[in-house]
Each structure stands twice: as C-alpha cells, then as structure tokens.
C-alpha cells in the first residue's frame, strides 16, 4: 500500500520515528531532493489514526516540493508530523528525540515550525540538530516571517493586477481582506500606503477595530466579505473559502491572498478561469515565509530576504504566461512551472555541494 502511494506521487523516503521513553511517534516524509535538501515544517496534531498522519505528511511534503520549486529555491520538498496533542503532549525529551531523527538524515531534511509547534519547541530540536530553520533571532535565525509574507503577497498582487487590468496601480482598486492576523494586518497596511479602498473582516473584533482606526478600512461582517463590491478578494485567514457557495457571490475579478489552499477543489479553479477571474495561486503568492527561512541556510540577511520577495512578481508573471501558453487555469500552470523547473534544473546535475546545507552565521547553544 505505502509503496504504491510513493510510486504514484513520487516520494523518495518516509521515515517512521519512534521513542517509547518520551512518547515520540513521528513521520518524516522526503518527497523530492532534486533541487536540494528537502525543507518543510513539522506539524504536531492529535491525528485520529496513524493513516491520517501518514496521509497528511505525504500530501504536505509533496506540496512543499512544488512550493519551493516555484519559489525558485534550490530546495526540495519535505514535511514532518508528530502525532500528539500540542496542548498536552509536549516535552523537552520529545523534541530532542525528534531532533535526533532529523540529525540522522544528515541534512536531507531540514525542518521548521508548522501548526502546533512554536519557537520554544524548535529550541529543543535545535539542541540536537543544525538542520532547523526558523530558529530564534538570537541564534542568527530569521524571526517572524509574516511581514515578509505580506510583502511577498503585495508583489504577487502587482503581477496579478497587471495581468487582469494591464495596470498595477494598487490604489486604483478596492480590496476585500479576510483575516487580520500576522499577515493580513500587515498586508492591509501595505494596501493603505498605496491609497487603496479596503474592506476587512475578522472573528477578532479588536483586530477589526485596529484596521479601521489605523488604516481607514471599512469593517464588514464575517459572511458579508463575499458580497462586498471589491475588485480583489484577498483571503488571509482560512483555506477553502473559494467554493461553490462563495464563488457566485464574489464580485472580485482578482483573487490574491496569503492563505493556504484557497480553492475548495480543482473544479473551482477551472470555474474561475471561465468567469474571467484571475486567481493568483496561493502557494506561489505566500512563498515569502519559506523564502525567508531558506536564507538561514547560507547566512540570513534581511536585504537579501526583501530582494527575494520581489521575485514573487516574476514567478506569478511566469505562471500567467504558462497558463496562456498551454490554455490551462493558473492553479495548474503553477504546478507545471514547478515540474518544468525540477526537470530542467535536475538535468544540470549540480555538484553534490548544493545538496549539503551550510548554515552559516548561526550560533547554537544559549
Ligand atoms: P494568523 O493566525 O495570525 O491570522 C489568521 C487570522 O484569521 C486571525 O486573526 C483569525 O482571527 C482570522 N480568522 C480565522 N477565521 C476567520 C474567519 N472565518 N473569518 C475571518 N477571519 C478569520 O495567521 P497568519 O500567520 O496571518 O496566516 C494567515 C494565512 O496565511 C494562513 O492561512 C496561513 O497558513 C497562511 N500563511 C502564512 C504565512 C506566514 O508567514 N505567517 C506564510 C504562508 C502562508
């Protein structure tokens, strides 16, 4: 069963990590290392079954291959899951044992934070292995990626406006921003700086009040965000919000936001194209976070990070070109860009040095 799945989706390696003393049950999936070591976060979740955990890690690791390839990184795709409840099951021993498994892969897999894991947990992992990104800034890490993700989303927006309207003057258009968390609020700030009309919503009223007071946004109800008269819908909260129910209501002609997995399914992506709505593929737009942590590998530098975020504009432009070239929806064109890049760069047969992470300028220990 497992090998059949690995065969279908092309995974290279799956590692089951077990340590009875500390209660560790984890799975590391390395999907593809053609472009470089596999990078992807570790998720801690109380999976109902081991099969659920396996399915999740296989799906997510494959997604990282595509995301990292489209981002133009010399990095492959991987992911890890720890089976457990983040509220109850965390311990130093658990994360250190996990870190030893990451270390045992010798840099083929580099981890980072994901759902259920915070920077303190990563400190323990980091005691056992260097192959961790997103470590605290005191160690030379990159810190909170959200402002970079928001800035990268802005670059994606410029390219998408250009595609739809042949004009990327952000202030000429109106925006419906769903979610005012770490990324959403920063994105609203960037929109405001460019003179845009902004509608906002969030389940957290304090965040809505802040967007209204500080950035002159107009507050709308949680469900109303799908009905407002905005040119751009920008999902920055949950996945799956572009679906059969919301699509007929959306007035926007552009969808561009930071949330993961925005489309409920592929049929919705096809329908967007039919309706003339330009969808900026989520994983290309929100690559700022992974770009930022990837820079830790050869010495983190803020200027380089900002420069790298601007490449998101070109990645999106390339995706739109492929969509036009092949007559396919943009979500498919993003996957095709990833596959083409892996194919071409893979054939260059890069020297092994490329596959060995260096981690310069970081300091381990306290
Ligand atoms: P966050 O948790 O800080 O913010 C999410 C916000 O959405 C919260 O304020 C929450 O109250 C709000 N929200 C939740 N449900 C909502 C609903 N039904 N309607 C309106 N608002 C709702 O998360 P974040 O770091 O800002 O990330 C936002 C999205 O971007 C997520 O999907 C995340 O996976 C994705 N993303 C983030 C980064 C990053 O660098 N932080 C990178 C890549 C992708």
Automatic annotation (TrEMBL):
Residues 143-350 form the Glutamate/phenylalanine/leucine/valine/L-tryptophan dehydrogenase C-terminal domain. Signal peptide: none annotated. It holds the Pfam family ELFV_dehydrog. Keywords: NAD, Nucleotide-binding, Oxidoreductase. The active site is at residue 79. InterPro entries: Aminoacid_DH-like_N_sf, Glu/Leu/Phe/Val/Trp_DH, Glu/Leu/Phe/Val/Trp_DH_C, Glu/Leu/Phe/Val/Trp_DH_dimer, Glu/Leu/Phe/Val_DH_AS, Glu/Phe/Leu/Val/Trp_DH_bac/arc, NAD(P)-bd_dom_sf. One of its GO terms (molecular function) is oxidoreductase activity, acting on the CH-NH2 group of donors, NAD or NADP as acceptor. It comes from the Bacteria. CDD domains: NAD_bind_Leu_Phe_Val_DH. NAD(+) binds at residues 179-184. GO terms for biological process: amino acid metabolic process. Catalyzes the reversible oxidative deamination of glutamate to alpha-ketoglutarate and ammonia. Belongs to the Glu/Leu/Phe/Val dehydrogenases family. This is Glu/Leu/Phe/Val dehydrogenase. It comes from Luteimonas aestuarii.
């Amino acid at each position: 069963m497992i090998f059949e799945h690995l065969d279908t989706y092309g995974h290279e390696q799956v590692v089951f990590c077990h340590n009875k003393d500390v209660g560790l049950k984890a799975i590391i999936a390395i999907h593809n290392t053609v472009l470089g070591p596999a990078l992807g976060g570790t998720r801690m979740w109380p999976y109902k079954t081991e099969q659920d955990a396996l399915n999740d890690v296989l799906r997510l690791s494959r997604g990282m291959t595509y995301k990292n390839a489209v981002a133009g990184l010399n990095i492959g795709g991987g992911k890890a899951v720890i089976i457990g409840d983040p509220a109850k099951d965390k311990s130093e021993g658990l994360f250190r044992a996990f870190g030893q498994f990451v270390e045992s892969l010798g840099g083929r897999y580099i981890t980072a934070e994901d759902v259920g894991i915070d920077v303190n947990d990563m400190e323990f992992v980091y005691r056992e292995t260097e192959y961790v990104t997103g470590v605290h800034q005191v160690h030379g890490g990159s810190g909170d990626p959200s402002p970079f993700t928001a800035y990268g989303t802005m670059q994606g927006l410029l390219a998408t406006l250009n595609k739809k309207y042949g004009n990327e003057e952000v202030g000429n258009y109106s925006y419906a921003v769903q979610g005012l968390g770490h990324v959403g609020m920063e994105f609203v700030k960037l929109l405001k700086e460019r003179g845009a009309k902004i509608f906002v919503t969030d389940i957290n009223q304090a965040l809505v009040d802040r967007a209204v007071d500080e950035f002159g946004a107009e507050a709308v109800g949680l469900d109303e965000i799908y009905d407002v008269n905005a040119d751009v819908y920008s999902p920055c909260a949950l996945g799956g919000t572009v679906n059969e129910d919301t699509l007929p209501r959306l007035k926007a002609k552009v969808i561009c936001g930071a949330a993961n997995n925005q489309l409920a399914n592929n049929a919705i992506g096809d329908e967007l194209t039919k309706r003339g709505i330009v969808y900026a593929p989520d994983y290309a737009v929100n690559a700022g976070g992974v770009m930022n942590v990837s820079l830790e590998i050869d010495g983190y530098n803020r200027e380089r990070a900002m420069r790298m975020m601007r490449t998101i504009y070109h990645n999106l432009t390339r995706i739109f070109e492929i969509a036009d070239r092949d007559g396919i929806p943009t979500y498919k064109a993003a996957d095709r860009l990833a596959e083409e890049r892996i194919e071409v760069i893979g054939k260059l047969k890069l020297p092994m040095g490329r596959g060995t992470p260096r981690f310069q300028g970081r300091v381990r220990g306290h």
